Automatic annotation (TrEMBL):
Keyword Zinc: yes
PROSITE patterns recorded: ZF_DKSA_2 (PS51128)
InterPro entries given in the database record: Znf_DskA_TraR (IPR000962)
Organism annotation: Parasulfuritortus cantonensis
Domain Zinc finger DksA/TraR C4-type: from-to ranges: 99-132
Zinc finger (dksA C4-type): 102-126
GO MF, any single term: zinc ion binding
UniProt superkingdom: Bacteria
UniProt name for this protein: TraR/DksA family transcriptional regulator
Length: 142
């Protein structure tokens, strides 16, 4: 299938098997993230939090540690939600002409990259350049 992007002709050659492999990877990652988000804090993180705060002899440093663990868990959950949203957006683009085409250079993104990260919008080279130029602009919530 060929498409036009930013004035360049781009060829995407994904077999039906390649697309099914990407669909399966996307569905699997979505299912995993959905379960993780639904569960919220894992049992062990919740137990650590309760164990620290539940001690009768705890002091302010124990309380600070418990709050920090809670913040860390919230940040992980926030990351999971953002990844889930990116995967849902990729799912919407999956059958469109722009899926699998790098938003920076317009080249086809290798299938192996899409299987590893179905939400990938850039080829490896462009993603590396993006991360170098945007390295200090993290989206973390801590």
């Amino acid at each position: 299938m060929s498409i036009w992007q930013q004035g360049k002709r781009v060829m995407r050659h994904y077999s039906k098997q390649d697309m099914q492999t990407v669909r399966d990877a996307l569905a699997s990652r979505l299912a995993d993230l959905t379960a993780h988000i639904r569960d919220g804090l894992s049992e062990s993180e919740q137990n650590q939090f309760n164990a620290i705060l539940g001690r009768g002899t705890g002091d302010s440093s124990d309380e600070a540690l418990a709050v920090s663990l809670g913040d860390l868990s919230a940040a992980r959950l926030d990351l999971d939600i953002r990844q889930w949203q990116a995967l849902k957006a990729a799912e919407q683009r999956l059958d469109g002409s722009e899926f699998g085409v790098c938003v920076e250079c317009g080249k086809a993104i290798p299938v192996a990259r899409l299987v590893a990260n179905p939400a990938a919008e850039r080829c490896i080279e462009c993603q590396s350049a993006y991360e170098r130029s945007h390295g200090g602009q993290a989206h973390g919530s801590l």
